[in-house]
Amino acid sequence: MRTDSGRVVVVTGANGGIGYHLLRALRDDGYRVAGFDTDTSNLAPLAAGDDGVRAYDCDVTVDAEVRAAVDDVVDAWGGVDILVNNAAVLTLAPFEERTLADIREELDVNYLGYVRTIRAVLPHMRERGSGIVHNMCSGVAAVGHPGLSGYAASKGAIAALARSLRSELRHSGVAFTLMYPPATATPGAAVLDYPAAAVQEPEAVGRKLAAKVESTDARVYADLSTRLGMALVSRVPALAAWGTRKYVADPA
Questions:
Q1: Spatial contact of 14 and 86, defined as CB atoms under 8 Å apart
Q2: Residues 6+ apart with CB under 8 A from 203
Q3: Which ranges constitute the DSSP H helices of the chain?
Q4: What distances in angstroms separate CA 98 from CA 12, 26, 88, 147, 157, one per listed residue?
Q5: Helices 63-77 and 113-128 sit at what angle, rounded to 10 degrees?
Q6: Phi and psi angles of residue 23, each rounded to the nearest 5 degrees, phi first
Q7: DSSP summary character for residue 10
Q8: pLDDT at residue 195, as a whole number
Q9: Residue 184: its pLDDT value, please?
Q10: If DSSP codes are grouped into helix, strand and coil, which group holds residue 181?
């Protein structure tokens, strides 16, 4: 749905995958959009030809970069109406083969990266008495996934953070959500080698989530099938175990 409100949305992890297509869909719908990423090679051409798109070389693990990018968006456009925390890294490996450096990186990007961007936008949102903070979550936060212990733990932390802030700041006018995409054929998820029939294309997922960007529901699902799938595996964990059996080593 086209809007000409010019509302401002910041998207992290915006140079590719879901984030890139979500940002493009939002711009098509009339939003002003700022994309944060450590690589802006895909975003830069969009920003060069459209004064409603801004691209920021921003590492969400670096406090100063996050604050500088958010401050620049506020200076340019007067504020941030919506933040979509989407940046993430993923390592597939058995727990005993993982290094502490791997785990720290996942937590620093997938959890503390969200904390940093929230801390940067929250004062501006609170001053205006309104705002929405979407936090990209995953079904693995609820049911786990063999070989993704670090990623699953970081998404579990995000779920707890969003719920806590939603309760703590319920009278502030700022809404905190958990946003759930389906399994998506992103470059980062390619290591999982899911069957093609089990995943959706990033462009389709980005557009579905863009259509939900004004939602203040506690949980925002890309589509009905994602909502139903989450409910099913949460109530019947054996389904998740069956679906991920190929990642579990056979006993010697």
A1: yes
A2: 21
A3: 17-28, 43-48, 63-77, 100-107, 113-128, 140-143, 149-168, 202-210, 224-235, 237-243
A4: 26, 37, 17, 9, 19
A5: 30
A6: -60, -45
A7: E
A8: 66
A9: 83
A10: coil
Q: Residue 230's pLDDT is what?
A: 82
| Number of Cβ within a 10 Å radius of residue 179 | 25
Q: What six digits make up the tokens of 49?
A: 């030809």
For the beta sheet containing 32-37, the strands, ordered from the edge strand earlier in sequence to the opposite edge, are 53-57, 32-37, 8-12, 82-85, 131-136, 174-180, 219-221
pTM score? 0.91
DSSP string, 114-161: HHHHHHHHHHHHHHHT-EEEEEE--THHHH--TT-HHHHHHHHHHHHH
- The pLDDT assigned to 186 comes to 76
Residue 158 and residue 114 in contact, taking contact as beta carbons nearer than 8 Å: yes
Residue 136, CB half-sphere, CA atoms under 13 Å: how many?
28
What is residue 4's three-state secondary structure? coil
Indicate the helix (H) or strand (E) that contains 53: strand 53-57
**Planar angle of CA 95, 100, 106, nearest 5 degrees:** 85
Question: What's the pLDDT tens digit per position in 135-158?
Answer: 999 988 888 888 999 999 999 999
Pair of tokens at residue 144: 């786990």
What is the residue type of 68? A
Tokens of 142: 């609820």
Q: What is the pLDDT of residue 246?
A: 63
List, for the chain, all residue ranges whose pLDDT scores fall below the cut of 50: 1, 251-252
Token representation of residue 226: 């994602």
